């Protein structure tokens, strides 16, 4: 049930049910959960509170659909994905409105996400016909060895709320390209975007049972456990916290699933004193404050070499003062609310901890209750220290902590002290340093002289406690495939009649 409707061009994209086996249905129990607008605090509507039995129905639908879907050609699957991509492009304005409504990010950011999200379908439509195997020279005379790439099977996908469209297309795209079927658990905070995508997939001709979307808020843990424990589900892909990733990995052990996890980050952003200051400030702003700091790859620790530290702090803070916080639909707003009050509490605690240990707030540092309970000022704090909470934990909010450093060796050591290793960034004009530091950082991704690294063509993923596996790029499809080796014996006979 939906309580109010944003001005969508196509109101049929606003769904309040789940998409299973090609049909729109509610939970067997009839239970629902409420979704609220993080900007206004008002109810958006309700979605089905699905449980284990509902999830098992979705798994059975995916299992049934796999029989025929895995036999489709790569070119057939490419056409489906390409059509789904085009439908996203055609309905981009409505998808962006839904994202802003339930996530809170400004409309311009939401439109950027829709473009990014749709591009995964375009990219993987082009990869689907190109899942090549190999011919391998055998060591045994008369044998011929070759490999075939096959779909891993039914996949369980669990996605977060910070990119309601892009995180689900980044998983669905390669799964379908490989010939897999799937059950996707959409985030309880932002389920309407996923439902709209499912409707567009239905219009694109994705066969019934190939893509199934389940929703839950209070039953999220048991839905996850159902996906990880089911012997039918052969692969689980999860984007979220490191703690939940560890739990899902334990739960998957008994059925020996193939896993890919994109987990927490604590990205270092390093500015060397030979960097172009203006470019470095722009890169730090883009990386740190994208989606109000609620991204896993945003700069969390900004290290600036002492030779330019004071100047960087001054210029950076002045730029942040120009930001405008407010509701995502409002004209001129650059940054929206945080997703809920728990996020606000964590941000506030990081600021208070830094100040108590000598950090100096240059901009912001306060909640904005006049706007609503989920709003917090864009914040800059200088003179940060390694023992502060922000240094140890992922803030996931709009707080830029600026740390001074002396030498290259010092800053690489500090950057690598985190137990996670998703993204890292640095700015320098020294080409030798660029290679040296990029190779020294213990992260799965490195941005050099840029604060934005996301690209469907680039492999996305981390090391250490940030997980394993890669999404996007030519490597993305392989996460949803298994390699079958075939050996033909007795192939070395002489030609007949010779």
Automatic annotation (TrEMBL):
Any one GO BP annotation for this protein: gamma-aminobutyric acid catabolic process
Enzyme Commission designation: 1.2.1.16
Keywords for this protein: Oxidoreductase
CDD domains: ALDH_F5_SSADH_GabD
Domain Aldehyde dehydrogenase: start-end pairs: 24-486
GO molecular function, one term: succinate-semialdehyde dehydrogenase (NAD+) activity
GO terms for cellular component: cytoplasm
Family, per entry: Belongs to the aldehyde dehydrogenase family.
Record-given protein name: Succinate-semialdehyde dehydrogenase
